[in-house]
Prior knowledge:
Helices cover about 55% and strands about 5% of the residues. The chain is mainly alpha-helical. The protein is elongated. The model is unreliable at about 1-15 (pLDDT under 50).
Amino acid sequence: xxxxxxxxxxxxxxxxxxxxxxxxxxxxxxxxxxxxxxxxxxxxxxxxxxxxxxxxxxxxxxxxxxxxxxxxxxxxxxxxxxxxxxxxxxxxxxxxxxxxxxxxxxxxxxxxxxxxxxxxxxxxxxxxxxxxxxxxxxxxxxxxxxxxxxxxxxxxxxxxxxxxxxxxxxxxxxxx
Length: 176
């Protein structure tokens, strides 16, 4: 059962697709929000040791525990846990839950007045939002070409939108 706002949004005769610039702004806002959430989560879940070890790996230093024991594995368990939570789980839940919610948008998309829908203008499911999120990794692997495609495709779709069969609309401000 759809609510009145969704029925009105589906019945509008003219829809605008959210373009590349609008989606970049939304992405920057979402990136900042996810970073703050992940930072707090890492701190409160006790993942700071993984962060410390990760920085040691990036600096090409010997990786040691807080007790001074040398870690010889390529990716220590603490680092793997830290990356799993902060790079995979938190962004996935943030994007999938918010894009499949009643608002159909993350906080960054709300600020940019953009909404995510299926090809018929309806709200997407959590599974489709999850597919859309994880499909973004394909765009990253292909040197961001999947995101650049947003500027050149007819419906302003990136590879992740095409894979998940989604559209991102711009909601212009209503002046009454």
